[in-house]
Amino acid sequence: MLIVCPSCASRYELDGAKLGTEGRKVRCASCQTLWHVMPEPDLPEVPSAEETQALLNEELQQAAAIEAQVSAVEAEAALAAAAAAPPPPAPDTSDNARPDRKRSGKASGPKSRKVKTARLPAAPVAGAVALVGLALLGLLVWQRDHAVRAAPQLASTFEMLGLPINVRGLKLSAVESGLIDDAGGRFLVVEGDVTNIARGNTPVPSIEVSVKDAAGQVLYSWKTDPPRPALEPSELMRFRARLAAPPAAGQSVQVRFADAGPVAAANVR
User: Fold this and answer.
1) Disulfide-capable partner of 118 in 85, 128, 180, 232 (CB 3.0 to 4.6 Å)?
2) pTM, to two decimals
């Protein structure tokens, strides 16, 4: 496998079988930088254009089926309501209903008649409303990443429900930190992997590193540019950040994409 020094960009060929499952530390022969190299992950193959179109067609068919079910329930509720409504009263053709012109000498005017309003049965209507609500909720959960882009306040709600959210399409993993002492002083070194889990090329923003104390308060934070500005689908790259003279009270490190919030963050002690 090909590895690249994060400091001077020197390239080396390395036998991936020697890394094991947890990886190992390697040192650059040019600049003496020490970093951790992980074995290449077994990433899923990128779907072809035909497979992507087939998945899209299947999702569209599922959406159409849900819409058809909702329309059928609404039509059934309307028919049930119409069947339950009482029929209109038949006109009274008896002699008592005819005006007696001879006795009164006046033509009697039309009698007022009360019109009864039929109420729709509550159960079918409530069932239809509940089914429509469930369909909308399912669509919202299915497309939660798009929903969070439109309404970021929904992110905390999905996290409470245990539903993963990734708006950027990037994943932080294998984050580790350590202190190094050399002739230049003491340095905090933070390393980690960035993986593109989206289906297309994804730009990689700046990476923000924060040092926190035992109470979780941020003592110092800084930003570092990623080794490459963008990643192809399923591509992984290793980043490395250094901080000279780190705070003595630091107990943990948080790594996240700049302005990404808690949606794409990783903590390490």
Assistant:
1) 85
2) 0.41
